[in-house]
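We close this part of the discussion by returning to an individual protein. Part of our work consisted of pairing the sequence of a single chain with a tokenised description of its backbone. What the numbers capture is local backbone geometry rather than side-chain detail. The amino acid sequence and the backbone structure tokens for this protein are reproduced below.
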Amino acid sequence: MARFRYCLNASTIMTTPILRQIAVAEEAGYGAIELWHDHIDQHLKASGTLTEIRRAVDDAGLAVPTTIYLAGWFQPAGVEHTKALDEVKRRLEQSAAVGAKFAIAGPPPGKADRELGARHYAELLEIGKQFGVRPAFEYLGFVEDINTIDDAIDIITRSGHPDATVVVDPFHCYRGGGPIASLRKLRADQIAMSHFNDAPASPPASQQQDSDRVLPGDGVVDLRAYCDHLTAIGYDRWLSLELFREDLWAQDPLTVAKVGLQKMMAVAEG
């Protein structure tokens, strides 16, 4: 019996139209797909509908654990915050329409006002209740401030909200420099999603960006330890293949998805 379930993050085949992304995930053997709001919007601008996306997901028998992403809500306050929340609500409506349980909410790129951001995250969770979608907080290894698991834990703890969850990611652990072992500070139900990927030895971790990510097992991150920490806290849900590589986007998406699933399972189940 597999100890995790496997999901395809649409970023990995980003240049593929959204309905084909969904078909590829099914054909490659995944149980779920994470959808990006930018791709949803592209479909809508081309006269497509949310109903078409939902039908494609349901016909494929896939789950949509998350949609990606909610930005601009963390800080500042005032008119700019209100405007950001209008966009958040639009995206949460999309999330609900395509069947997502969570929507991923990111941190600011620079120095973070953690008290303000935590209050705004609690506000975000209350807004999410209107749509039946829970915003999940993600740390990002390449931002200035909130770039480790411990930073994300700080935000959800400060929020004081019982529905607060985080998104974890081995690449962001490596890039941000925080210990992977901090996964053990979380309960399984506090993890909305685990992205899955690897990082190369070069360039140095401090210089890496999204496009440097590599397929699981092709880099230097101790992914077996990462998976063991997840298992130790009882997390047995989605590992989602999230890459941002132009060389992969140029290949056949089904081949990329199949190879990615094989590499994920070789590391996580081996």
Summary: Residues 46 and 67 are 20 Å apart (CA to CA). The first strand starts at residue 5 and ends at 9. The chain has one domain: 5-268.
